[in-house]
Amino acid sequence: MRHLLNPLDFSVEEIDDLLALARDIEQNLPQYAHVCDGKKLATLFYEPSTRTRLSFEAAMLNLGGNVLGFSSANSSSAAKGESVADTIRMISCYSDICAMRHPKEGAAFVAAQKAQIPVINAGDGGHQHPTQTLTDLMTIRSMKGRLDNLTIGLCGDLKFGRTVHSLINAMVRYPNIKFILISPPELRIPDNIREDVLTANNVEFEEVGNLDEAIGKLDILYMTRVQKERFFNEEDYIRLKDCYILDKKKMKLAKEDMYVLHPLPRVNEISVEVDDDPRAAYFKQAQYGVYVRMALIMRLLEVEKPC
Amino acid sequence: MRHLLNPLDFSVEEIDDLLALARDIEQNLPQYAHVCDGKKLATLFYEPSTRTRLSFEAAMLNLGGNVLGFSSANSSSAAKGESVADTIRMISCYSDICAMRHPKEGAAFVAAQKAQIPVINAGDGGHQHPTQTLTDLMTIRSMKGRLDNLTIGLCGDLKFGRTVHSLINAMVRYPNIKFILISPPELRIPDNIREDVLTANNVEFEEVGNLDEAIGKLDILYMTRVQKERFFNEEDYIRLKDCYILDKKKMKLAKEDMYVLHPLPRVNEISVEVDDDPRAAYFKQAQYGVYVRMALIMRLLEVEKPC
Amino acid sequence: MRHLLNPLDFSVEEIDDLLALARDIEQNLPQYAHVCDGKKLATLFYEPSTRTRLSFEAAMLNLGGNVLGFSSANSSSAAKGESVADTIRMISCYSDICAMRHPKEGAAFVAAQKAQIPVINAGDGGHQHPTQTLTDLMTIRSMKGRLDNLTIGLCGDLKFGRTVHSLINAMVRYPNIKFILISPPELRIPDNIREDVLTANNVEFEEVGNLDEAIGKLDILYMTRVQKERFFNEEDYIRLKDCYILDKKKMKLAKEDMYVLHPLPRVNEISVEVDDDPRAAYFKQAQYGVYVRMALIMRLLEVEKPC
């Protein structure tokens, strides 16, 4: 039995295979309408995340399966002191696969050890969020036609941004990737990513403080939200949050085929005037997220592609 | 693509057509069990409303479709600062149609501008709640056999009662409707409804302060809840809330074929002793609400009536 | 129309019949995948109980039906002052059967009087929780092959433990049952159970304060959680909660075919080192809970066993 706990749990070949399935789902959606008939997905959200939860639910419903679960910890047995290990044993009796979101790092790993069903990590604290990474990979491949030979700009909160760290980890496995890391000094990428991932893999990168200078060189611009909850004081948040706002003026400096991604939700780091630019790919990303989760559920449940 | 944001978005002919479909659904329910197979309804409830939400869910399940969504804002991305416009773009990737309840007036209108799926306004602040109005119209037509030539009493909180304002707006489009407006002076109907809707359309109406005097003349009595949250102080609420309570004694003064409607939930404005009176139509109303929402979902999804 | 409000609502024969159906479901699950197609279960949880709610939802989905409802009172109409009687009338329009959890004793009884659909009591305060009792009975019968001629140990909070009281009431109807009641003096079984149920039915029992002495005589050991919310002060809770912890050492004193049950969630009253003991039946219990609820839903909806 396989789980998905970390974006690197799957080899490059397995990811290629999964993205090919997701692509086929996108193109032949109605053919997949019953491949998971009678299967149940449990969504165990110990902290709310509407976007991720609904994306999983839409994915399972699209496959003909059903969904049960909870959307916040206060409506779960956790409030009565039950351990994650006990909860997952119970959930194994109620469903065929589960997606778990938990504020504590490692919660999904603990669950997977006791689970009798496949566990998908739908985010564990600031740690991992592998289905977001799969979504990002599918979006990049769909927009650019490839996952190699790309210059990727990562902009905003590179210190705490979980999705950014995961994306770097996933992309360094492809040939000829270059990163441009765009952030204020306070929110630069952590040392362990810089050294253990980028330098150790001989991946080219530069760190800059200015989006205007960098944007013209990029094939992909990955914007991130500057999350209020990551800051110790209000002042720092207000000073920094608006520094890296993408607007029409900046988009004029970018290549014609540079696509903008964002894990969403955004607050104001991408001006709404950019939404209608054909290079804005962040809403398409939400759609790809459904297809890639459909493919993932099928793989983990070992459901065959319909013929 | 059509939305339903305001009860007047549909013409009288379109409403007649919708109510005819709802009537057919009532009479041939099993025939509709699969007309929305594979379709998904998103219920986006930024404020809780169990009744409305479950009515929509029952409607979609009765049609063979599925449901996903959230039941309060604190379990939604809104808590992370996402705009309604962004949320609806995401939801457009996850579902085929949505019903939105929001505390702010106009929220559903904003959503409809960005949505790639039909949006049903399931209540936006004190503004509109069009499916309640459709439910009321279906109930009146089912009980009385017509939507014209009626004397309709509206009783209780006519100042803040959103459903009452919508019903007046909807009914003035039918011939020979007379209203009797029964309320304490503090909760009389607003000037804009009195002048711009009733007077402007040459609709006969009278304003009275006493339910006993008026009840004998009515074909329909529409009771409303006096909502605590509309009052600035506790005293005013207590003084007024019990003034307009319908009981068995008052029902004796009414015609044999006068039906009582109420948008529910009630608190104590209708005594439970009235519940078994055959003229009490307020629980039937809940059932009609499911049928009319089934018809609405079919129309907006352009699903054909089964043959 | 039948409801299930109290574990004794069903005769011994009816329970035998229900458990036989549950057993058949366990052995032939796929045959039951469509027996409730088109039916809707409403889960009305006025207080959160993830375990019970998800067990009902899994049961209904396994039968091909659908689910709607709410998981806590603050997202229900109760917050607007609606009575349970009015809510159940509304719910009768939206669903075919309902499971209700409510903090007030007797709430499900009130609901059943006004309901036009079968009502299952999914817990009303400290009063009744009949589907837990059915689950316990199925587990005992599955593990031991019988419901008579058993020595049953009940351990922990016997004063407030609703599940323990219900299990005693249910088991005294079978021949040759003996109870050993293991608790601290403060949490002994209430007088009315001791006298009106045990003594009145001539059922053999002993009350002891020490799990070590009793465990060797038992066929079934039913452990319970010592719930913090039952205590008036923190000190009493801390002093008592760890007194009756089952661990490997104690399990060595037990028979080879003594099975351990627990209604779950546990906190620490069963050490996790016991989980891998083949006599630990408390996770299997969760699975039996789904089968017995499937059987119950079928019976109350008068759905026939597939042939």
From TrEMBL, chains A, B, C:
The keyword Transport does not apply. Its EC number is 2.1.3.2. It is an enzyme of class 2 (transferase). Heterododecamer (2C3:3R2) of six catalytic PyrB chains organized as two trimers (C3), and six regulatory PyrI chains organized as three dimers (R2). Belongs to the aspartate/ornithine carbamoyltransferase superfamily. ATCase family. It catalyses: carbamoyl phosphate + L-aspartate = N-carbamoyl-L-aspartate + phosphate + H(+). This is Aspartate carbamoyltransferase. Residues 2-141 form the Aspartate/ornithine carbamoyltransferase carbamoyl-P binding domain. Pathway: Pyrimidine metabolism; UMP biosynthesis via de novo pathway; (S)-dihydroorotate from bicarbonate: step 2/3. PROSITE patterns: CARBAMOYLTRANSFERASE (PS00097). Keywords: Pyrimidine biosynthesis, Transferase. L-aspartate binds at K80, R162, R225. One of its GO terms (molecular function) is aspartate carbamoyltransferase activity. It holds the Pfam family OTCace_N. It comes from the Bacteria. The keyword Transferase applies. The lineage of its organism: Bacteria, Bacillati, Bacillota, Clostridia, Lachnospirales. NCBIfam families: asp_carb_tr (TIGR00670), PRK00856.1 (NF002032). Catalyzes the condensation of carbamoyl phosphate and aspartate to form carbamoyl aspartate and inorganic phosphate, the committed step in the de novo pyrimidine nucleotide biosynthesis pathway. Residues 149-298 form the Aspartate/ornithine carbamoyltransferase Asp/Orn-binding domain. SUPFAM superfamilies: Aspartate/ornithine carbamoyltransferase. HAMAP family: Asp_carb_tr. Carbamoyl phosphate binds at R51, T52, R101, H129, Q132, L264, P265.
